[in-house]
Amino acid sequence: MAMSAEGLEKLQELQRRSYPIRAIVALIIGIIGLMFAIGLSISFGAADISLGMVWQAVFNFSSELTEHQIIREIRLPRVLGAALVGSAFAVAGAIMQGMTRNPLADSGLLGLNAGAAFMLAICFAFFPGLPYMYLIMWSFAGAGLGVVIVYGIGSLSKGGLTPMRLVLAGAAVSALLGALGEGIALHYRIGQDLAFWYAGGVSGTKWSHLQILSPWLLAAMIGALILSRSITLLSLGEEIAIGLGQRTGVIKIWGMIIVLILAGAAVSVVGAVGFVGLIVPHLTRYIVGHDYRWIISCSLVYGALLVVLADFIARNINAPYEAPIGALIAFIGVPFFLYLARKGGKEL
Amino acid sequence: MNNRFLTANQQKMKRKNFIILGTLVVLILITFVISMNTGVIKLTPLEVIRTLFGQGDAQQQLILFEFRLPRIVIAVLVGMGLAVSGAVLQGISRNALADPGILGINAGAGLAVMLFISFFPSTKAAPVYLLPVLAFIGSGLTAIIIYTLSYKRHEGITPMRLILTGVAVAAGISSAMIVLTLRLTPENYQFVATWLAGSIWGSNWRFVLSLLPWLIVLLPFVYAKSRVLNILNLGEITAVGLGASIEKERRWLLAASVGLAGASVSVSGGIGFVGLVAPHLARQLVGAKHQFLLPASALLGGLLVLLADTIGRSILEPSEIPAGIVVAVLGAPYFLYLLARLKE
């Protein structure tokens, strides 16, 4: 069993390069930071509300107080939406990077964003005035369409689903769906409406949206955590993973389903905020090493933190106008990503 | 031992490749004729030939020389520029995904145009012919930024770092563009969006003249470097062993590639897929040697954009679909088919 020997060697190497203590510390700091950011985000805004009031509104709600109403009906769903979306993007990015062994993998690459945009273009063009809820559903379906085509072509090919093939198929499907969506948008002159939707951020999030999305997202995140050990092994390379007794086909399919749910739901809520899925897993990999159990759990926390903070800044930087949240994240993300790229960009 | 066998085989390959290149030229000519025959006023092949030799009536001459021909020439030139740019980028980065779009060159040009439109809110009053210049400056600056950011002393540029930096910069530029997009008036938005989607809008001889010099200088330059590209393709270690001073060569080739893409994008907007798909197709047809790969990419690129523009003009008459969109709709499925059929 030469393969297994090599696999074990790789595994030991991996264990040397993963830092559980650092990961636990990072996790604790991240959770505290997230709590703080959520509190901050709820209490600041057009009407300033004290942190104590926030606490009361959440745990001791009284419907007579306007502040409580604002917190309950506007700010709380919004901040929870931001946190959920952030976690979803980051975890989806981490899974994709681990599975494809491609440091650039993110939801944009697998045709998700283009699929969602395509479907939204159809909705805006042919069914104007569709309620928000249905738009979310269709955009979700579009994201699914993108992934299914990419994944289908990847697995139909001779020689199976290699990372390179996946990435190439993703680029081509993105180009195709993107172009179709763009064509519809140009012809029906709805491009700017779509842009507004995409730049809209989490501002319109309501409890009813969260109610529909959160069970899926939570289930997918739990699935991601369960799958994380297998993803670590897969990230060592397909052959090694097989050598270590992994059923790689099953893992990949589950991984894809989880990614679809996470990224599809997130895209449908905030639009194409690509950098979270790219940057957070990189950051956490840098801190905690190469064990995906830690990468995914830390991505979950820090993705939420990043988007909550970004949303907070987007609301307050130029109040009462909101800055597009994707642009804001890119402003934080680009320099950081450039720094990573300089450091080598080959840590996968 | 089997030296003679090899050369015989190579000769056969060479002949095959020349036939392929010839076929591509013929296909471009056929598309040219079809393209002349579509549109509100149609010119039959015979009329085209008569007009070309100065035998047509005034109206035919006007249509051919002032409207159709410049646009066709631009489409072919743009396609060539983008395709060769992509082929060179793929060669120097040894990354099959590299194309001008990925390296942020399109985005840079787009941002420059967007800024221009934001400062001159009325597109009608603004000097529109300035757009290509601005787009060119935008893409050039972006390329310089990417190069500087991915350059490291003693190490130079690694392909991976180049791509990563390009992706990051492109994403940054795109988000800046989103911010600007939301502030545009709907008419200006439509103009910018159409431009970005890759429509051959600069359809007169002035734009041909602004594009042609770049191609005349850069295409032969790149072709002369075919051997270097072949060596770079073999991988870093082999290339150093063969004595190519990699960094210098790569810098020149990168500059040439940016020049080609920038000049093309400035006239056509963001036709993104040509740089990716044309070199891939070319590699399927003539193999990986750049002596054939580069001309085949150029011809395929030209054919693809010309075909796309012709289809885009005629499919939804009288409104036009930008060539960039048609390119993607045509190119992507074929690319996927190739991908599914190919062994790794």
TrEMBL record, chain A:
The chain crosses the membrane at residues 21-46, 79-96, 108-127, 133-154, 166-190, 253-280, 292-314, 321-341. Keywords: Cell membrane, Membrane, Transmembrane, Transmembrane helix, Transport. The keyword Manganese does not apply. InterPro entries: ABC_BtuC-like, ABC_transptr_permease_BtuC. It is found in: Cell membrane. It comes from the Bacteria. The keyword Transmembrane helix applies. It is a multi-pass membrane protein. Its main location: membrane. CDD domains: TM_ABC_iron-siderophores_like. PANTHER family: FERRIC ENTEROBACTIN TRANSPORT SYSTEM PERMEASE PROTEIN, IRON(3+)-HYDROXAMATE IMPORT SYSTEM PERMEASE PROTEIN FHUB. Belongs to the binding-protein-dependent transport system permease family. FecCD subfamily. This is Iron ABC transporter permease.
TrEMBL record, chain B:
It is a multi-pass membrane protein. InterPro entries: ABC_BtuC-like (IPR037294), ABC_transptr_permease_BtuC (IPR000522). Pfam families: FecCD (PF01032). Keywords: Cell membrane, Membrane, Transmembrane, Transmembrane helix, Transport. The chain crosses the membrane at residues 18-36, 72-89, 101-120, 126-150, 162-185, 205-223, 252-280, 292-315, 321-340. Its main location: membrane. It is found in: Cell membrane. Belongs to the binding-protein-dependent transport system permease family. FecCD subfamily. This is Iron ABC transporter permease.
